[in-house]
Design brief:
Shape: elongated
Structural class: alpha+beta
CATH superfamily of the largest domain: Transcription factor LuxR-like, autoinducer-binding domain
Order of helices and strands: HHHEEHHEHEEHHHHH
Distance between the termini: 55 Å
Number of domains: 2
CATH class of the largest domain: Alpha Beta
Helix content: 40-55%
Radius of gyration: 22 Å
Number of strands: 5
Number of helices: 11
């Protein structure tokens, strides 16, 4: 923190700085190469196929080779700290920083959080206007705990008004200058994909509207029946059964019927 000498630092400060440096070196031994289609596809696979959202965040951090990743949403509201609207947070920040953030009431002075729930376009943390000494002290404290100072935040939305924020950060200027220009489009895609999953699974909104016939076809497909088998069982044409399965895959954003079945079960749309 600014204005503090080494002699006046807290006893655990040296250990904390060492731990932060060790973790940073482990993840950034190489800057994420070729942030193109392969990285985009792998990130989407992590989001779709990792069961726990907390594990998704950790895997995305490691996949992107960045210091930290955070996802924060507030149900149907723009105030991210309103407990009545159910804030939902998953992140990779150090436990010591999370504890200090809560103890100091930093949600009230966090300029990144404020702007993320007021803006509509992605922004770098370096663009922020620091409005008070409290905000400057907050950012210095965050950096001392290994969060920032370089960061990129992406506001995300659902069609029902559910807002969220996806952000990544780094303490290393050289890594950041190489990472962000190439990663920006991928990060925006990741943010929106992750937000859609959280909104559907955690808050029960924006789920794909499967018809009764589509659900019926998926249920039989889950039992190993082919499109022809399903057609015979439901007394419809094979072409019609294939169309129902195709429509269900499209709505669930899946390539294969087994994937569609698994996702429908996970979303609570299909009970086997």
């Amino acid at each position: 923190m600014r204005g503090r000498s080494e002699a006046g630092a807290r006893p655990g400060a040296a250990r904390r700085r060492k731990a932060v440096a060790t973790n940073r070196q482990r993840r950034s031994a190489t800057v994420a190469p070729g942030l193109g289609e392969n990285m985009f596809t792998e990130a989407f696979s992590i989001i779709e196929h990792t069961s726990d959202i907390g594990a998704v965040i950790t895997k995305l951090r490691d996949h992107l080779r960045i210091d930290h990743v955070v996802y924060h949403s507030s149900k149907l509201g723009t105030n991210p700290s309103d407990p009545q609207r159910g804030p939902y947070i998953r992140l990779t920040y150090p436990a010591a920083w999370i504890l200090r953030y809560l103890q100091m009431g930093y949600a009230e002075v966090d300029p990144v959080l404020r702007e993320a729930f007021q803006r509509t376009l992605p922004f770098e943390w370096s663009e922020l206007t620091i409005a008070s000494e409290a905000e400057a002290s907050f950012l210095a404290d965050a950096a001392a705990h290994g969060v920032g100072p370089h960061g990129f935040s992406i506001p995300v939305f659902s069609k029902h008004g559910h807002r969220g924020h996806f952000g990544v950060s780094s303490a290393q200027k050289e890594q950041w200058s190489s990472f962000l220009p190439a990663a920006r489009p991928t990060l925006i895609g990741i943010a929106n994909r992750l937000h859609r999953r959280v909104v559907a699974e955690v808050f029960g909104e924006d789920g794909p509207p499967l018809t009764a016939r589509e659900i019926e076809c998926l249920r039989w497909a889950a039992q190993g029946k082919s499109a022809s088998d399903i057609a015979a069982i439901l007394q419809i044409s094979p072409h019609t059964s294939r169309e129902y399965l195709k429509s269900a895959r499209h709505k669930l954003d899946c390539v294969t019927s087994p994937q569609a079945v698994a996702k429908a079960v996970r979303l609570g749309l299909l009970v086997l």
